[in-house]
Design a protein that fits this description.
Layout lengths: L8 H7 L3 H27 L3 H17 L3 H16 L6 H22 L7
Length: 119
């Protein structure tokens, strides 16, 4: 996959070009989001949709910060579908897509920024 799932423009602006800060933020993101995705997968098996929606809410801001617009929109959609609309139609598929694309994003970040030693 050649298409980048992220755009660090916003992060670069906040960091004012401090590459060490950006790298630290990316390492933290990779570590935390890996754990959250593993949690979502377990929650999906148990059909804990409300907790998945709460986790999607937390992930949405992380994805926005990384310029991962597609993942941000998907996380917001999951949250809205469960919490606001009480609509579980397709939520399992959306959850799978969030997890799978989240793992792809993590893989891209690990490769592009040589992040090792995380899950």
């Amino acid at each position: 996959m050649d298409r980048k799932l992220y755009n660090l423009k916003k992060m670069d602006e906040i960091a004012q070009g401090d590459q060490g800060f950006i790298r630290d933020m990316l390492v933290t993101f990779v570590e935390n989001v890996t754990v959250e995705i593993e949690g979502i997968r377990s929650l999906k098996t148990a059909e804990k949709w409300t907790v998945i929606a709460e986790t999607a809410h937390k992930l949405a801001s992380n994805f926005a910060y990384l310029g991962a617009d597609g993942l941000h929109a998907l996380a917001v959609d999951i949250e809205k579908s469960v919490i606001n609309d009480h609509n579980l139609t397709g939520i399992a598929d959306k959850t799978d897509k969030l997890c799978n694309e989240g793992i792809l994003l993590i893989g891209q970040l690990k490769k592009d920024f040589d992040i090792v030693g995380t899950n």
